[in-house]
């Protein structure tokens, strides 16, 4: 079985964390955009029909899901994400350039 070096594992874990964070921001963006495009978003939410819509939408489009609850994505969250993503990209490129320290794949 091929071993994965610690740097690779750390990079992979960081990438998965970035994916989760990006998905949460995308889900909030979709929620805001969907309500903004509706005739009367406020009453859609109040009536409970929006929750129903979100549930159905998320079943049909699991890879384009809408956040079930409203949460403001603060600017600093987006900025921190961009900073972390740029750092991750630098580290990943560096590791690819330097070569992996993992033991040679024997397969
Ligand atoms: Zn590696």
Helices, strands, pairings?
Layout: H1 6-36, H2 41-47, H3 49-60, H4 75-98
Helix pairs in contact: 1-4
Largest sheet: none
Query: What gyration radius follows from the Cα positions, in whole Å?
Result: 20 Å
Q: What is the β-strand count?
A: 0
The helix content is 55-70%
- Calculate the terminal CA-CA distance, rounded to whole Å: 7 Å
Descriptive account of the structure:
By secondary structure, the chain is an all-alpha fold. The protein contains four helices and no strands. The chain has helices at residues 6-36, 41-47, 49-60, 75-98. Helix 1 (6-36) packs antiparallel against helix 4. The chain is elongated. The model has no long low-confidence stretch (mean pLDDT 91). Bound molecules: zinc ion.
Précis, in short:
The protein has 4 helices and no strands.
Defining key terms:
binds zinc ion; elongated; mainly alpha; 107 residues
């Amino acid at each position: 079985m091929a071993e994965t070096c610690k740097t690779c594992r750390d990079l992979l874990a960081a990438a998965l964390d970035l994916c989760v964070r990006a998905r949460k921001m995308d889900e909030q963006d979709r929620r805001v955009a969907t309500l903004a495009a509706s005739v009367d978003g406020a009453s859609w939410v109040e009536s409970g029909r929006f929750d129903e819509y979100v549930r159905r939408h998320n079943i049909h489009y699991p890879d384009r899901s809408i956040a079930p609850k409203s949460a403001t994505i603060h600017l600093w969250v987006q900025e921190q994400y961009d900073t972390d993503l740029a750092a991750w990209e630098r580290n990943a490129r560096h590791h690819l350039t330097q070569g992996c320290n993992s033991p040679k794949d024997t397969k």
